[in-house]
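Allow me, if you will, to draw on your knowledge of protein folds for a short while. I have a record of one protein: its chain in single-letter code and its fold written as discrete structure tokens. The full record is reproduced below for your convenience:
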Amino acid sequence: MINSIATLVHCNKVCKNYVMGDNVVRALVDVDLAIQHGEYVCVMGPSGSGKSTLMNLIGALDTPTSGSLEVDGNPLQTLNSDDLAQFRNQTVGFIFQQFNLMARTTALDNVRLPLLYSKLDREQAGQRAAECLELVGLSDRLDHQPSQLSGGQQQRVAIARALVNNPQLIMADEPTGALDTSTSGEIMDLFQSLNDQGMTIIVVTHEPEVAARSHRQVLFRDGRVVDDILTGVSA
């Protein structure tokens, strides 16, 4: 039985179909999955296995075709567009492979951006953004634009931006895919530190070295969960 108090993400028989002309592509098939508060989970599988689709559903960027999905007690299929926007802004922090930073904007303003719809004034938002940049080791890069930062530093800005609203969950889609091995290790060290502080983290990856840092590996194939492995790494 699922412990609703400890459970952050609960997928129950979740299916996602895409209509491509006359064909129906079954991206996810009857996915049952529960992720607890404080877990560090890697979702793995070959291209087209459904792992990114799952991330989009959990992050409310897309909706299931059938089944139910709850995140932090929110049944996503019942939320209206305003509620979904608030959920995406406050409950989930997103990190992407290509960083998705605003090119002509400083690190501080990139991180401050999600706070535009908060109750904080500009000075308070700037202070919060600066705190997050300090947390990821960039307190000396507040006024730098992305072009003045290395790939690893840009990803750190993206992580700070994901943290700025104190989300319940960090979701990262191939966060080391554009980085070299050494820098990838630094980013994974940062994820580990955040998880050690209690942050729930879900990483979509095809890299075994990245998955090895997690506490749990959920393996997808053809839209289905085919294995769910506790790695033995202590939480």
In short: The mean pLDDT is 92. The longest strand covers residues 7-20.
